[in-house]
Amino acid sequence: MTEYIETVIIGGGQAGLALSYYLTQQGRTHLILEQGRAAETWRSGRWDSFTLNTPNWMIQLPGFPYQGDDPDGFLTRADVVACLEQYASSFHAPLQCGVRVTAVRQQPAGDGYLVEMEERTIKARNVVLATGAYPKPKLPIASAALCGDICQIHTSAYRNPQQLPSGAVLVVGTGQSGCQIAEDLHESGRQVYLSTSSCGRVPRRYRGKDITRWLSGMGFFDQTPDKLPSRAAQFACNPYMSGNHGDSINLRIFASQGMILLGRVQVAQGKQIILAPDLEENLARADAFGRQITQRIDEYIKQTGMEAEANSPGEEAPSNAAQSTKPLLTLDLQAAGISTIIWASGYQLDFDWVQLPVFDTLGYPVHQRGISAFPGLYFLGLPWLSKRKSSLLYGVGEDAAFLASAIVERG
Fold it and tell me: Are the C-beta atoms of 344 and 175 separated by less than 8 Å?
C-alpha cells in the first residue's frame, strides 16, 4: 500500500535539515529521505585534511547558530558532520537514511507527486528537492585519452596522499578544492604539478579582519542573481581563499615553495598532455580579482567612515612572489615522474530521476526562489537560488524559511 506524507524532502544535508526545522516548528508532517547518511556529501566527498573556507561564525543554521569559542576558526570535515548530526538531533528531524529515490513524478490524477524508491512509493502533496545542483563528479574529455596505468581520481574521491601511488601528482584545476589538495600533497613531500584555471583569489584577511567580515557587512553574500552581469556568472568558479590552515592561498607563493605551475590542460594522449600558454594570464586574472575585492572594501570603509587598520604585512601575499620560469606547454607524465592525476574539474547536474519538465535546455531547474511552475514542487540549496549565499551554511536558512512559508500557505 502506498503511504501518504504531506511533504517529502529529498536530501539530508544542511538544506533539507533547515527546511525540516521550520516545518517542525509549524507542526507540519514531513519526511527527509537521504540515500546515504546525514551530511553524506561532507562525509564521503571531502578529503581528510579538509577545512571550511568560511569561518565558524558563518554557520547560521535556523535555530542552531554557531556558539563555540572560536568564531573566526574553520571547522574540519569531521566537525561539520558532527555539527549537522547535532542539528538534526536538536529538533528530532524525521530523517530516514539509506533510502535512494529512483523517481519523482506527478500523480496521474493531478494534485501531488509520487516519490518512488526501490522498495516503496510515497504519495506527497509537496516534494522539495534539496540534493544540491551539482552532486555528480565531472571529468573532462582529456581524461579518457590517457594511459590506463596513470591513476586518475576526482577530488571527491581524494582522501589523503597515502592512498595514491608513489610519485609526483598533477592536480588539474585551481578552485578551492584543487588548491587545498595541492597544498595537502605538497606538505606531505610530494612533487606537485598544478594546472591553473581562471578562478580568482581572495586574501583570507584584510585590514585586520577576516575578509568575510567585510564582505558580509557590504552585502556581498546578499547579492541576487539579477545583479550579475550575465547568467553565465552564476556558474563561474568560486575564488580560492584559504588553505588547510586558514592562511591565504597564492599560487605564486606555491611556485616559490616548489610546486610547478602550468597552464590549462587542452589535450591529452597516452602520457602526453598539451597545455595552454595561459599560465601568466591565469595568475594575473587571479591577482586582479583580489585587488578588485580589496578596493571595494577600501571604498566601503571610506564611505561608511568606520575605523579600520591599515593592511598589515602577511595579510595579503604579494602578487610578484616567485613563480616558475618559462611555463611548460607539453607535459610528459612519464618523464616528470607523475603517477597520479587529480581532477579538480567540478561537478555536473544530475536530475535525471525527476520525471517532470521543470528544467531548462541546460538541465538547470527553472524556478522563482525555489518555487517551480508545478504546484508543490520546490528546490532548495541550489547556488544562487535567491542570493549568493543560498547554498552556504550561512544563507540556506533564509530560503528554507521562505519555502516553509510557501508550503504552509498552500495548505
Answer: yes
Q: Which helix (H) or strand (E) holds 279?
A: helix 279-304
**Residues 356 and 336 placed together within one structural domain of the fold:** no
Q: Are residues 323 and 191 part of one domain?
A: yes
Task: Clarify whether residues 220 and 237 are in a common domain.
Answer: yes
pTM: 0.94
- Name the residue among 130, 111, 47, 218 with its Cα closest to residue 399: 130
Beta-bridge mates of residue 359: 365
Question: Do residues 278 and 328 both lie within one domain?
Answer: yes
Q: Is 8 in the same domain as 104?
A: yes
Q: What is the number of domains present in the chain?
A: 2
Residues 328 and 363 in one domain: no
Domain boundary among 343, 369, 384: 343
Pairing of strands 121-129, 113-117: antiparallel
Residue 172 β-bridge partners:
195, 343
Domain containing 331 equals 138-343
Cα Rg, the chain, nearest whole Å = 23
Question: What pLDDT sits at residue 188?
Answer: 97
Read off the amino acid at residue 210: D
Residue 14's alpha-carbon distances to 111, 132, 328, 381, in angstroms, are 28, 10, 42, 8
Which residue has cell 574529455?
A: 141
Pairwise pLDDT comparison (212 vs 109), residue with the higher score: 212
Buried b (16+ CB within 10 A) or exposed e, 303-324: eeeeebeebeeebbbeeeeebb
HSE at residue 91, side-chain half, CA atoms within 13 A, is 18
- The tens digit of pLDDT for each residue in 25-50 reads 999 999 999 999 999 999 998 999 99
